[in-house]
Write a structure and sequence with these properties.
eight-stranded parallel sheet; 10 strands; about 40% helix; binds zinc ion
Length: about 300
Amino acid sequence: MTTLLMTHLDCVAHEPGHGHPEAPARLSAVLAALEDPQFRGLVRHDAPIGNQADVARVHGQSFVSAVLAAVPRTGHAALDADTILSPGSGTAALRAVGAVTAAVDAVASGRASNAFCAVRPPGHHAEPAHAMGFCVFNSIAIAARHAQAVHGLERVAIVDFDVHHGNGTQAVAENDPTLFFASSHQYPLYPGTGAAGETGLGNVVNAPLPAGADGAIFRRAFETKILPALDAFAPELLLVSAGFDAHRADPLAGLELEEADFAWVTSRLIEAARQHCRGKLVSVLEGGYDLRALAGSAAAHVSALMDEN
Ligand SMILES: [Zn+2]
């Protein structure tokens, strides 16, 4: 059994503009780190173009059409103050969707143990009717709906350890008892949601962390809140929004995590997946804005995924 790496160079061609933190160099840095000999066992696939019908399960076809129509032929077009499209952005966003849906297909059918989707733009802030926070389509929520619609899974869990709250994913999950959503994040911080009292139907777990929280506090939040709730939900598939901007070097936030903390949380999530769903786990890159910390943290994450094979 194998760990799959799903990516596509089209995801480098989404260019939100000079000085924008969600830069093409992020993905290049992650892919360069995964060229290390320790990753030679990864099975590498080019992500297909995602189906608009998959996107429409979360966002509706009129939103999908409006976003794709907004992609400029030259220059830039803004979907919100910090979500900027370039000529390559529509294809990049659809490759991100294609990566997660193809990864779900491979893991659900047993062709791979687990998968990491190295894609951009990220997705977890995108709400059903709003692109925001660098995010165009909510890839992880689309993956969950794809798993349910195409593979007949009944209970899909999404765990999000990006430093920002996954408001878009929560918006999809909070009224649907077939989904579980748990997030650790700095709070208060953009986008402002993610208070501990936001619990959906009892299927949403928010673990807000104060600025300055380190790996010990992060691990305690997982041990005491997120992992027990995940166990109680007993998912048939575990999806992970893997943002690495809780690293202490990240310029956009103020948590104090290190590479070892990302390896730890990955191992714990794999344990949960092994216990409940034969290890079926699909992870997708969200944030992470210090290139060196991002590359090292993503490498630690993928290395932990591969350890389980
Ligand atoms: Zn983030």
